[in-house]
Amino acid sequence: MAPSNELPGNIFFYLIIVGFSAFFLLTIAARLLPFLKAKGAPCLDQLPQRVGDFMLVMIGQSKFFRRKYWYSGILHPLIFWGFLVLLIRSLNMLFSGVADPLSLEHLPGGIFDFYKPVMDLFNVLVMVGIAMGAYERFFVKPPRMTLNLDAWRILGLIFFLMVTDILANSFELNLEGESKEAFSFVAYGVSNIWSGMNLSHDATGMLHATFWYAHLIILFGFLCYLPYSKHSHVLTVAFNVFFRNRERSGVLRPINIEAMMENAEEGATFGVGKVTDFNWKALLDFMTCTECGRCQSNCPAYLTDKELSPKEIEHHGRMTLLSTTPTIASLMKGKPSPNGDHLNLVETMGFESIWDCVTCGSCMYWCPVCIEHVPEIIDVRRYLVMDEARMPETAQATLMQIEQRGHPWRGTQFGRSDWMQGLDVPLFDGSQEYLLWVGCSGSLSERNVPITQALARLLLQAGVSFGVLGEEEPCCGDPARRLGNEYLFQMQAQQAIEIMKSKGVKKIVTACPHGYNTMRNEYPQFDGKFEVMHHTELLDQLLREGKLQPKVGLAETIVYHDSCYLARHNEIESAPRRILESLPQAKIAEMERSRKTTFCCGAGGGHMWVEESRGRHINHARTEEAMATGAQIVATACPFCIQMFEDGIPALEPDEEKRMRAMDVAELLDAAIGTAPTVKPATAGEGEGVPAST
Amino acid sequence: MPLHIIACVKQVPDPEAPASAFRVDEAAKKVVAAAGVTPVISQFDALAVEAALRIKDAAGDAKITVISLGPETARDVVKHSLAMGADEGVLLTDSAFDGDSYTTALALSKAIEKIGDYNLVLCGRQATDWDAGVVGYGIAEMLGIPSVSLAKSVTVQGDKVVVERVLMEGYDTIEAPLPALVTVSNELGEPRYPKLQQIMMAARKQVTIWGAGDLGLDASKVGAGAVRLNLERLFQPVSEVECEIVEGETPDEIATKLAQRLREQKII
Ligand SMILES: Cc1cc2nc3c(=O)[nH]c(=O)nc-3n(C[C@H](O)[C@H](O)[C@H](O)COP(=O)(O)OP(=O)(O)OC[C@H]3O[C@@H](n4cnc5c(N)ncnc54)[C@H](O)[C@@H]3O)c2cc1C
Ligand code: SF4
Ligand code: SF4
User: Fold this and answer.
1) Residue B102's domain spans which residues?
2) pTM across the whole model
C-alpha cells in the first residue's frame, strides 16, 4: 500500500504529479522550439551500428574507462548505473501510487523481490559515487571543471533521493511486517533501528508517508530543475549519443551552395553566424555539455595559451541558444524569445577562438558525451570566410594563394613534376593499379620532395604497379575546406574527382594524411568513390608480403609521432609502427600522448600556413615531448608534421650536434632497404625569372 | 551625384611562379610562360580596386568601374574586381591593341573618356610583369588631369583628393582637384577577400566589351605601328661566376690576403 492510495493522500499525489509535470513539459516544449526550426542533420543512417554504439558508449559508459580519468571512471558509472537500476523503483512508486494492483510487487513469481537486493546495493553505490564526486569537487578541484553551486545542488538532490528512498523503504518494511527483509537488505538494516525504538504503527505510517512524499517531490523537483542546470545532459545525453555523426571524426559535411544561392533570401548565410543557423544536433550538443573540461585539458590550442577552449565553445553555444529560446514566462506573455536573436556567434565565441582550432579532434575523442566541436567551429569559420570575409591575414593570403595558383605553397620554386627527375615514374594512364597521389606538399614543398622520392623508389623496388598525375594533379582541397572556404573546396574536389574518374583511377596511395582523409572520407560526398590507402598502410603490406626487405641496420632510437588525421581521425596507428619495427637494430620509443591520444603538431586545419600569433608554439610543445624520450629520430608520416618538427627542433636545441632528426617513415624504410640509388634532389630553376608579357 | 571612380586592372602571369616556369623566346622577343603559370590580377591593381572600395565605404555611396585591357582571359580580373565589390566592368579586347605602354595608355584614356562622368582614376604603381610603371601617368597626361604617384592612402574630401604619398622615410600629404589620377602602392595594405555572395553576383554581372572601333581607334593608332618603344633584344643575361676561397690561419690574415687580392684586381 502506498500513502497515496487513499484520501487525502491521493490528492497530494496527483497535485504533485500534475503540477511538476506541467512545469516540466512546458519547459521542454519551450526548449524544443529552436530545435524544430533548426536545420536537419542525418541521424538515422547505420541504425544497427547506432544501437551497438549506444549500448557501448551510453549504457556501457565506455568513454569513462580511460586511465587518465580513472577517478571519474569509477564515480560516474556508479551513479549512472544506479540511476538506471533505481528508475524501476521510481516507476513502481508511481504505479503503486496510482493503485496498488498496478504495483510491480504483484508480478508473477515475485520476481520484483529478486530485483530488490540489486536496487539496495545501488542505493549504497550511488552514495559512494556522490561522496567521490563531492570529494573531487571540494578537495581535488581539477582545473578542467567548472566548479559552481549547480553541481552541489545536483549532488545534493541525488543524495537525498537515495536517503529518502532507503528511509521510505525501511518504514514500509516495518509497516507491512512482511517477511521480505531478506530482499531489501539495506532498508532492512535501517528498519531494525526503528524496530528497536518501538514506534507505534501510526507513527511508522506517518514517517513512511513523509519520506515517501519527500522522495516523490525530490524526484520531480530534480526533473524540473535539470533543464535549468548545466547537468541537463541527464535528459539529453541519450539522444546525443544515439544521433551522433556516424562518420569518422575528421569528416566535415558539405553545404549545398547552389541550392542556397537559388533560394537566397535576405540575410541568408552560407556559414553559421547566429546560433539558430546551426543544425539541431549542434544545438543538442550545447545542451548536453556538462562542462567537465576533458576537451579543454586535451586541446593543443588551449594548452599553449590560445584563446580557444572547446568547453567554452560549447558553453557559449548554450548561453547564446538559451538567450534565443523562449522561457515559460516569455511564452505566457506571448513573446517568442527573450532577447538573443541578434547575438552573433563570432562575438560570443570569439573571433580568435574560431581561428585557433587546428581541427585535431582531441576534444571529440575525449568528450564523454560525444559532442562534435570541430564541425561547429568550422561552421562559424565558414560564416567568417564566405559571408563576412573576416579572417587572419595569413589565412586570407593562403586562401587567395589556393584560389589563384591551385595550391597553398606560396613562393614555391618547384613544379609538380620536378621531384620525378632521375626517377623512372610513369604517368598514370589507367593501366596501373595505384595512383600515387603526391599532393601539393609532396611535390612543391622542399622538405617533402625527398620523401616523395623515397616512397616512389620503394614502390618501384617492390614492383608495385603505379603512376602519377604529374602536372595535372590538383590540390585535394583539404586546406580550403578547413579554413572555411567550402565553395573553393567543392570546386577543387570536383576538379580532382573529374580528373581521376576520366583516367580510370580506382586505388589511390598517398603520403599525406590530410589528402587521405579528404579523398577517402569526403570525396564520396561528391560521388568520388576511390579506394584510398595511406603510404604507411601500403608499405606495411609490402613488408608483410616480403616484397620489401630491410637490410641496412639503423642503431638508433626512433620515436613515432602520430598524425591526428592518421591515428585519431582514421585509426591508422599500427601500420607505421610495424614499419619502424621492421628496421634492423632500431629501437622504438613512445611518447605519453600517442596513438589516438596524440598531440597535434600544430599544422592541422590549414594552420600549416596560418601564423600562430598567441601563446606558445604548439610544435614546440610537441617537439619537447618527442625530445624527452631521448630518441635520436622522430619519425612522422605526414608532410606537415615533419615540417613542424624541422622547425621545432632547432628552436629547442641550439647545439646542432645534439639535435634530434625528423624523418618520414618512408625515408627510414628507404634507407634500410639500401638499394636506393643516390638521386639528386630536384632542383628549382636557376637564375632570375624574367617576367612574361601579356 | 555620387562619386564615380574608375580603376584600371591588368592581368599578368603569376609573378610568384618559379623562375624555371618561364622561357625566353629570343627570336619572337617574348617571354613564354609554362602551362601551369596562372594569369592573376596584378598585385598593385588589386590594391587600386581596394582603394576605390575604401573610398566608397567611407562615402557610403560611390560607383566603381573597372577597366582591363588584354586578351579574353582578362575577363577574370574584371570579375575578380567585381567580386571584391566594384559595380561595373569593361574589357578592352582587340588584336589591334597589341602595342606598348604608350598605346595601352591611349586606349585606356579613350575608354575612360567614353565612360565619362568620372571623378577619380586609380591605377597600380606598376604592373607586376614588366614593372615599367608608366601607364598611369600616360593616362593622366592624355586626359589632361593631375596625377599623384605611390599612394599609401587615398581619401576624397569634397572636390579634392587627398593622397599620402610614400617616401623613402615617411610620406607626403598631397591634395589635388578632382578629377585626378592616383597610382597606388603596396603600403596601402591588403586587398579585401571577396565574400561568396559577391562572387556569385559578380559571376552573373555582364562585362562590357569594347574593341578598337568602339573607341574610335584603329591599329594604326594603337597597334604595332603606333608603338613608341622598340624592343631591341630580349635575352637572359649569362653571368659567369668564379669563386676563389681566400685561406688563412686567423681572420686578420684572411682579411689582409683578401684586401691584397682585391687590390690586385683593382677593385679597391
Ligand atoms: C632591398 C635592399 C636594399 C638595401 N639598400 C641598401 C642601401 O641603400 N645602402 C646600404 O648600405 N645597404 C643597403 N642594403 C643592405 C646591404 O645590401 C647589405 O646587406 C649590407 O651592406 C651588408 O654589409 P655587411 O657589412 O653586414 O657585410 P656582410 O653582409 O657580412 O657581407 C658583405 C659582403 O662581404 C663579402 N663577404 C662576406 N663574407 C664573405 C666570405 N666568406 N667570402 C667572400 N666574401 C664575403 C660579400 O661580398 C658580402 O656580400 C640593402 C639591402 C636590401 C635587401
Ligand atoms: S579540434 Fe583540437 S584544437 Fe580544435 S578545439 Fe578540438 S582539441 Fe582544440
Ligand atoms: S564538450 Fe564534452 S568534454 Fe568538453 S566540457 Fe563539455 S562534456 Fe566535457
Assistant:
1) 3-226
2) 0.86
